[in-house]
Amino acid sequence: QVQLVESGGGLVQAGGSLRLSCAASGSIFSFNVMGWYRQAPGKQRELVATITVHGSTNYADSVKGRFIISRDNAKNTVYLQMNSLKLEDTAVYYCSLRDLTNYWGQGTQVTVSS
Questions:
Q1: What does the H/E/C string look like for 62-114?
Q2: pLDDT tens digit string along 63-88?
Q3: In the predicted model, is pLDDT for residue 29 greater than 90?
Q4: 104 burial via Cβ count (<10 Å: 0-12, 13-18, 19+)
Q5: 1-5 long-range contacts, Cβ below 8 Å, gap at least 24?
Q6: What CA–CA distance (Å, rounded) separates 38 from 47?
Q7: What CA–CA distance (Å, rounded) separates 28 from 72?
Q8: 30 confidence band (pLDDT: 50, 70, 90)
């Protein structure tokens, strides 16, 4: 079983920055993809960014140039640096780890205010 624990969410003004962290523990296959998804009220969960164990990244168009995903393989931790935050970035952000199974964190709220 794999556990994902997120931290770093909160309230920030538009234009500000936040950094999310997600630490994974348990039986994790070395070949995995970690990432962040988000779900705004009344909307479906959507991809934000993913990163492979080798550092290959993928971003949603809406966050390209503003968000940076990174990971520390030794710590099984993934980060999401969010810059130039917009009102529409408000959502619950979920950490994901996919090896043979897809695991999810409990979610952390990010609220961007005007």
A1: CCCCCEEEEEEHHHCEEEEEECCCCHHHCEEEEEEEECCCEEECCCEEEEEEC
A2: 999 999 999 999 999 999 999 999 99
A3: no
A4: middle
A5: 1/26, 1/27, 2/26, 2/27, 2/28, 2/97, 2/101, 2/103, 3/103, 4/95, 4/96, 4/97, 4/103, 4/104, 4/105, 4/106, 5/105, 5/106
A6: 7
A7: 14
A8: confident
